[in-house]
Amino acid sequence: MVIASSESPSQSRNTVEPLLREFRGIREQVVSGPSPGATAAQHARGKLTARERVKLLLDEDSFRELEPLRRHRAQGFGLESNRPYGDGVITGWGTVDGRTVFVYAHDFRVFGGSLGEAHAQKIHRLMDRALAVGAPVVSLNDGAGARIQEGVTALAGYGGIFRRNVRASGVVPQIAVMLGPCAGGAAYSPALADVVFMVRSTAQMFVTGPDVVRAVTGENITHEGLGGADVHAEASGVCHRVFEDEETCLSEVRYLLSLLPSNNRESPPRLTAPLADGRSPERLLELVPVNPNQSYDMKAVIEELVDEDLFELHERWAPNLVVGLARVGGRVVGILANQPRHLAGVLDIGASEKGARFVQFCDAFNIPLVTLEDVPGFLPGVEQEHGGIIRRGAKLLYAYCNATVPRISVILRKAYGGAFIVMDSQAIGADLTYAWPTNEVAVMGAEAAADVVFRKEIAASDDPEATRERKVREYRGALTHPYHAAERGLVDDVIDPRDTRQALIDGLEMLDGKHADLPERKHGNPPQ
Ligand code: HXC
Fold it and tell me: How many folded domains does the chain comprise?
């Protein structure tokens, strides 16, 4: 049954006009936020507002906000008379280069961006949607952690975020961007994300702030000294990249997203390989010295092998291992490479943990692994042993052994001992392994080997010095050259260094359809 309207079109317009006016008024409040003063204070702190950030992150006009009208229902401490729209967080989705991305941004102007019940529920719903549709989540963090006035309800809200962070782990990429002082839960949720970016001077992360630290331990420290970007990029390893300003940071988030698939069922977007890229492979011969003890910059080698630049992660933490994303022949790969410039490229605790996390990240998101090896071994020392190099070095081993993505490794100059095996050797599952003719592959360097195996013979000889030299030569000739490894099938081939890029391109093409299953299990039990 159709009920005929008794209103004429102009009457109807008159009735709807006040409603639209009210609607516009509310919208204005939603968009402008608490007060011009609060916005000015945010800018005076050198920070953008949450809305300005979302705008910079997403494609123009692509943002669709969710629950902008949500308000808290908390009582006490004056909260009942202070119920701003949105409850201190903007949530929604939009596109980056045309691909769907979910985003939430704390609004520091509202209760310091702190998280209460309504605020948390908005984030929960956003994360549930992202997981359901299989799209990345970017969090723009600028918040003081649990909202003190809402007590344990706020803490529970964090619990719901952590649980979702973990459920989404390895399913959709999670990128945490730190843009202000992030305390407590506001620091822990990012720790569960795949990648953490920070802006220098304005972003800090800590579980408990300087005041609590002072009260409990008596230590005096500034916000920056406790949890600034440089601390987390260099010492703690929490932060993957540091930027000078928010604009650059957010533009790099966009670039990072272009290197990642939307979820674990997809592969990263592939570009057509550059045609004539005018590179000179001869440079590879100059970059890597034949002398195994001479230093060089592995990053220069990587630049010769990849299409454009390496998008390095954790540049300053454990710099003896370089990790990052790049394209080779148009395909995104994850590169792990020993860096002879730092600690001669040894594997130590930091490098093992950094490498393990990166391998896991790439494996989860179908990013093939390219390992460039030039490694003198694990770092010896009491500090390393007592610090748990066995347990923590095993993380890298575990991550590689567990990785089912295409895996190619190239030994550039030397690979000694356990490090040879750990750095994606064929024995632990690399699909293709190559060595350059200049290299040494052995249990240890020839000198060290001679000192262990021929110690008594050297000591008993008339001329120990000459005997040692002879033994070193013998050992090097017999055991450590790449043909020895190739004869035994430990590497697939010895290649001309100048052919390395093409070998990678061909190998990645061949491995494109790789399918590998792990035994059925609830999950493994990796060393922690
Ligand atoms: C409610 C808060 C708040 C909080 C700050 N504010 N922290 N409101 N809950 N946790 C309010 C302030 O009262 C102030 O309001 C406004 O936010 C800005 O704060 P300022 O202190 O003026 O800003 P700034 O000097 O920049 O310092 C920011 C800060 C500091 C470093 C974040 O405010 C701070 O240390 N806050 C406490 C952080 C904390 O301990 N959080 C709880 C963590 S526990 P007005 O109205 O004056 O502008 C947690 C547990 C999670 O999160 C579970 C983990 C496992």
Answer: 2
Helix (H) or strand (E) holding 63: none
Largest CA distance in the chain: 119
What local confidence, expressed as pLDDT, does residue 128 receive? 98
CA of 112 to the centre of ligand 1 (A): 6
Q: Whole domain around residue 361: which residue ranges?
A: 281-445+480-513
In 3D space, the residue among 132, 115, 272 whose CA is nearest the CA of residue 187 turns out to be 115
Tokens encoding 103: 């985003």
**Does residue 446 have a pLDDT over 80?**
no
Q: 357 CB less than 6 Å from ligand 1?
A: no
199 and 346: one domain?
no
Q: Are 329 and 240 contained in the same domain?
A: no
| Residue 155 CB–ligand 1 contact under 6 Å | yes
| Residues pairing with 192 in the sheet | none
- Asked about 477 being catalytic, the answer comes back as no
Does 489 participate in catalysis according to the annotation? no
CB 375 within 8 A of CB 292: no
Is the pTM higher than 0.70?
Answer: yes
Whether 253 and 285 share a structural domain: no
**Cβ count near 228 (within 10 Å):** 22
- Answer yes or no: do 285 and 247 share one domain: no
Q: Is 444 in the pocket of ligand 1 (CB under 6 A)?
A: no
Q: Point out the catalytic residue in the list 112, 184, 227, 329.
A: 184
Atom 21 of ligand 1, nearest CA residue: 112
Give the pLDDT score at 366. Answer: 98
For 511-525, write each residue's pLDDT tens digit.
Answer: 999 998 889 999 999
377 is catalytic: no
114 lines ligand 1 (CB under 6 A): yes
Q: Are residues 86 and 179 in the same domain?
A: yes
Do residues 232 and 290 share a domain? no
Question: What does the pLDDT look like over 65-101, one tens digit per residue?
Answer: 999 999 999 988 989 888 999 999 999 999 999 999 9
